[in-house]
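YM 10:42: Glycosyl transferase family 2 sequence, as discussed on the call
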Amino acid sequence: MYRSVRTLRKARSILPLGQEPSSTVLPPTVTVVVPARNEEAVLDNCLRGIREQTYGSERGTSSDAPALRVVVVDDGSTDRTGEIADEHAAQDSRVHVVHSDGPPPGWSGKVHAMHIGVEAAGQPEAGEWLLFVDADTVLAPELLSKLLGTAERADADLVSTPGGPPENSSASWPVLMPAGLQMIGENADPLGKGSKAFAIGHCILMRRSHYDKIGGWASLSGRRNEDIAIATAVRDHGGVTRVVEGLSYVTTSGMDPFKQGWGSFRKSFVAGTNGSVPVLLGVGVGQIALSLASPAMFARGVRTRKPGLIALGAIGWVAQSVSHDRTARVMHANPGLAPVAPFTNAVFGGSRCTEPPRWCAARPVGRDARRPSERGFPFGPARVRRSGTPHRFVSRCPIRAVARATPGQCS
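YM 10:58: structure's back
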């Protein structure tokens, strides 16, 4: 019951998405970085959503200094991901593509892709913001303006919002997501308090000044739970972090089909425990035991006709159901399974102990089928080659600009 009460308290601390930022003569530049590996099924919708953002319309889309610029990192894709990114770059001068062969030793794939995306964007501008968006995520046209306005009003240096379910979403949302949000919330705080700050990697907006202050992604090169890691780093360097409820403006297909949702949570747990099998099993079995304790107590009370056990079991059961209902609504998932929350929570515990069940096998798309990458270069499409330690960014623009960076550098 304590876990359920704490979950309800933390859910209330999530900020509602506010209005657009106060009008300025020249809105600050926002650089969007999209890591993508083997994302041909979802990348087109993601980039269309970004290009259709209403933010910065005062500066236009074809000016020399647009308010919105987009860097896509094609991280060694073996499908049409790179071609799709290049097509968008050909249609929109704000979009730039970086083609990478993948991360060097010591880097996780997504972190490296986001790192080279920021590097390719060039030198920071005054007041600039960075927006990191997963390739399986689609933004509504007003999202960026509202998210930036919310960050300004909260005086936050990093805000993030999870993506909501797409149409015809899988059982991942009502079965796994409520317990998943509860578990993440137990280890990280939406207000940035405690040992870790909470953030959701689907969509992270942060001040570039704070990105540089923490040493950028280079300081987190080997991390796989990069969303919580960067939020915690910003908090530890004096920044303010908040989680925003923007699910009406952000959708993600990263939890569908069910196998992919199961695998996504398991991958997060493996990263959070450094792959420790004993810890994964212990926490998974503990989750199952705690979840089923209330119905077991209730059933035993009924069999032995002990009102005390019946009452305790019922209270624990109801507490889990109320928590499930609240977290499901936060994530825009169907709360209809709230009455059987102890059992869905137990199923979620299984995601820590095992690979996805065979009965839910399906061809993965999006996040599980790729290793992150991005696409951006301020001058034009670029190729990032890996040979030994140095990484070389070579633009294909007429001016043939060249920049160099080693894996340990981040400016």
